[in-house]
Amino acid sequence: MKPHTAASAFILALGLSTAPAYAHHALSKVAQDKVVTLTGTIEEFRWTQPHGWVLVAVQDPDLTINAWSIETAPPTVLARRGWTPTSLMPGQHVTLTIHPLRDGGRGGALISVTAQNGHVMHSE
User: Fold this and answer.
1) Residue 29: pLDDT above 70?
2) β-pairing, 65-71 with 107-115?
3) How many CB atoms lie within 10 A of CB 74?
4) Are 110 and 71 in contact (CB under 8 A)?
5) How far apart are CA 46 and CA 73, in angstroms?
6) Which of 43, 63, 84, 104 could serve as a FRET partner for 110 with CA atoms 20 to 30 Å apart?
7) All structural domains of the chain with their residue ranges
8) End-to-end CA distance of the chain
């Protein structure tokens, strides 16, 4: 094998071997084996790279309202699933299904959102 061909093959193999680890970096913080359902009001929807964010106010059983930060799939993935930057609007009442944070914090990774009219939008 010629030296430049071997070097090119090595660089290609190295690049391909690191892509899956980089692509799933955010999931290490969430408990993928757990699912939590939250009901609340959208405060903000951030259509940003590398992942979008849903900020939602959730009322706990003791009537305390807490802010949750939920990470979504990247906007390119959301768009392929029919989402737009205005799919979630402040004041909208929703039910979210998430994988919660491993540390028990108020956050997680979005699985799906159900609007009051029953329309379901998937993130995963």
Assistant:
1) yes
2) parallel
3) 17
4) yes
5) 11
6) 63
7) 28-122
8) 43
